[in-house]
Amino acid sequence: MEETPEDAVPVERVAALDIGKAEVVCCVRVPSPSGSGRRVQEVRTFTTMTRSLQAMSDWLAGLGVTRIVMEATSDYWKPPFYLLEAAGFEVWLVNARQVKHLPGRPKTDKIDSVWLCKLAERGMLRPSFVPPAPIRLLRDVTRYRVDLVGERNREKNRVEKLLEDAQIKLSVVASDIFGISGREMMAALIAGQRDPKILAQMARSRMRAKLRDLEEAFVGRFSAHHAFLLTRMLAHIDALNADIAAVEDRIEELVAPFAQAVAVLDDIPGIGITTAHAIIAEIGVDMSRFPTAGHLASWAKFAPSVKESAGKNKGNGSTGHGNRYLARALGEAAAGAARTNTFLGERYRRIARRRGKKKAIVAAGRSILVCAWHLLNTDDAVFVDLGPDYYDNRGGTQRAVRNHIRGLQALGYQVTLQAAA
């Protein structure tokens, strides 16, 4: 027998909230006043209005509750979480999967709150990562920017489909129909111009080398109906561009206190200013929440899950679904790094050759996340690229020889080595 560290210490005074849109069911469990060692509990229901939540906070404070646990139910958890956090309570947000009610038992809001409270007092739960208020504000605007950019892309796709419906093949000739030339041509179409030669002459710069193709592209059946829809779509795109610019200005204001963190992340290949903003908004700058880089990679679902039974690995190596905004940022950074002549670029290419591009993106994204953890965890840390030849120099001659021999043997050859004279 060996001693093991006891991480979970039973909580004497604990509360749990079952949160809905209109009501909050609160269960409190505290030691019995009789001193018998038993536990006593009380369940009350409050509305989600601010005054009712404040009354619940005063009630919990009067009972000496030290920890409050709640499930992450849609966005309904945010008002009680923020209010109780501001009141000085230790508030835990837990994953609903970890507190799933046992089958075969009745299920009501009251029973759910009692069950959650019993799990919390026995230390059987883990808190989810909820960043501090400054990071939460930054996260709101960076996520909103992603949503706006997605909406703009969808509207641009609608424009391209509309032109295809009108037999205008501009997207076949121009790589970006929303550049200066493309916007001027579409404005002329809306104004009533239908002559392909006149429309093609609006091309600028490198597009003038494609005048003949442009003339063919504008031979179509663009009508007043198409002009009306195109006017509305282009106006929507311009409005979205204005909104994105305003949001980016707000991001610059909120990220100013973290300028040093942005600068160090910007040194990692594949990460630009926008990606650095997104990463900081999702993981924060205080890495004490993640004891090691492996903990951060596991939380972000950039590490394979472990599923073992009867001594056999039952998993398929999948990472699962994590923070989609962080995954998007790391995926874009990994794709950018793959085009560079750096260690991360070579890492991507090596894995892509053996296991495919999707796994290579995840592996490179994990490496970027590990680099980010070390840079944010240590004040004086700087990024140093190991170089694209790191694997060759580290492996040595004998490893390269073994790899070549295995490759030839896999093709059906017998290999005999003879040293050169």
Concise structural overview:
The protein contains 16 helices and 7 strands. The chain is of the alpha/beta class.
Overview of this protein structure:
A hairpin with a 2-residue loop joins β6 (308-309) and β7 (312-313). A 5-stranded mixed beta sheet has the order 3-2-1-4-5, with helices on both faces. It has a two-stranded antiparallel sheet with strand order 6-7. The chain has helices spanning 50-62, 78-86, 109-121, 133-165, 170-173, 180-191, 196-200, 211-217, 224-255, 259-266, 273-283, 293-299, 324-337, 343-355, 357-377, 390-410, and strands at residues 14-19, 23-31, 39-47, 67-71, 90-94, 308-309, 312-313. Helix content is 53%, strand content 9%. It has 16 helices and 7 strands. α6 packs antiparallel against α9. The longest helix is centred in the middle third of the chain and has 33 residues, at 133-165.
Helix content: 40-55%
Q: Quote the beta fraction.
A: 5-15%
List the helices and strands in order.
Answer: EEEHEHEHHHHHHHHHHEEHHHH
Structural class: alpha/beta
Major β-sheet annotation: 5 strands, mixed
Stretches with pLDDT under 50, minimum 5 residues: none
Overall pLDDT confidence: 88
How does the overall form come out from the CA principal axes?
globular
Structure summary, number of beta strands: 7
